[in-house]
Amino acid sequence: MGGAVEKMWYLLGQKFAARGHDVVHVSKRCAEFPVRERIEGVEHVRIAGHDTPGNGIILKVFDGIYTVRSISAIPNDADIVVTNTFWAPLILPLIKKAKIYVDVARMPKGQMRLYGAAARLRGTSTPVAAAIRAELPVRRHSQIGMIPNPLPYETNEAIDLGSKRRNILYCGRIHPEKGLELLTEAATALPDGWTLSIVGPWKISAGGGGETYLNTLKAMLDSDKVRFIEPIYDMDKLNALYKEAAIFVYPSVAEQGETFGLAPLEAMAWGAVPVVSDLACFKDFIADGKNGLIFDHRAEDARGQLMRCLLRLVEDHVLRRRLAEKALKVRVTHSADSIADLFLSDFAGVIE
């Protein structure tokens, strides 16, 4: 329904198929989609699942049920099974002969030591790979790899940076760990003509912080320059927002939860200058003062730092344009074709 992991593998599967590989994509069943269909050479099989519960223990139980259900959908002759469920690396090696390729899309929490039967533990970023390494003895470090996430779409559309709207955009889960409270000073300091748009899911079932948190945030950002928009799962509509925005802000404070930062990458591909917190994962593709700005979310004056970063870009259109031009280069470095080739090379190495 639009999460970073789902969007990424949806597109990568098509790239693998275009290169002559047989690809089966197993995912959660939704009323909007058929149980089986073929899209761009990829066989999609959708099985019964659950909405995300607020309780972590219940989540693990649901995850186990989902993993067991998925087994019958996995072809017996599969060479590689890519998975990001908790239980799959433990259960699948007992039943399937395929190499298990664990997509570690979040910071590990001790579970990596359980996955001795996995062929690869793939981190999405340098800090994730380092965190996996820290959980394992040296003899198992050969299991670990790092391949960045690709852009979940392709475009060669030219961007007219001069036609950007005076809008600062946030797209992501509306949750306390995203640091949206740090925008309070910036929201009140925006000059006339500039707006702040906050787009994303707030319901707990969709990974948000819930209605109480949403209302608290709205009260904190009470300004006629701030607007809240319901989540957008249509990629074309989401890209239209990125294309219009001059600046993209992502003030996450999730020291252990943030592993890559796909939303800033998506925005950069449309020429929106990213302003992000000082989390290590962002530094794989954002360099402060070169293709974006980074503020210290741990500092006592984090709100003030973020405000000054945003106002610097608002007031200096020359700087904003220079950073936007550099940001656009992620279209090449993180294209789906480039990343698909990295994965296929790694798959071949794992099999050999």
Total strand segments: 13
Q: In sequence order, what are the helices and strands, one letter per element?
A: HEEEHEHEEHEEHEHEHEHEEHHHH
- Assembly context of the chains: single chain
Report the CATH topology name of the largest domain: Rossmann fold
**Structural domain count:** 2
Q: Give me the Rg, rounded.
A: 21 Å
Strand residue content = 15-25%
Give the CATH level 1 class of the largest domain: Alpha Beta
In which range does the helix fraction lie? 25-40%
Describe the structure.
It is globular, with a radius of gyration of 21 Å. It is of the alpha/beta class and 352 residues long. It is built from twelve helices and 13 strands.
Secondary-structure map:
Layout: H1 4-18, E1 23-28, E2 36-39, E3 42-47, H2 56-71, E4 80-83, H3 88-95, E5 99-104, E6 120-123, H4 126-135, E7 144-146, E8 165-171, H5 184-189, E9 195-199, H6 211-220, E10 226-229, H7 235-244, E11 245-250, H8 262-268, E12 273-277, E13 293-295, H9 302-315, H10 317-327, H11 330-333, H12 336-351
Parallel strand pairs: 1-3, 4-5, 5-6, 6-7, 8-9, 8-11, 9-10, 11-12, 12-13
Antiparallel strand pairs: 2-3
Helix pairs in contact: 1-12, 2-3
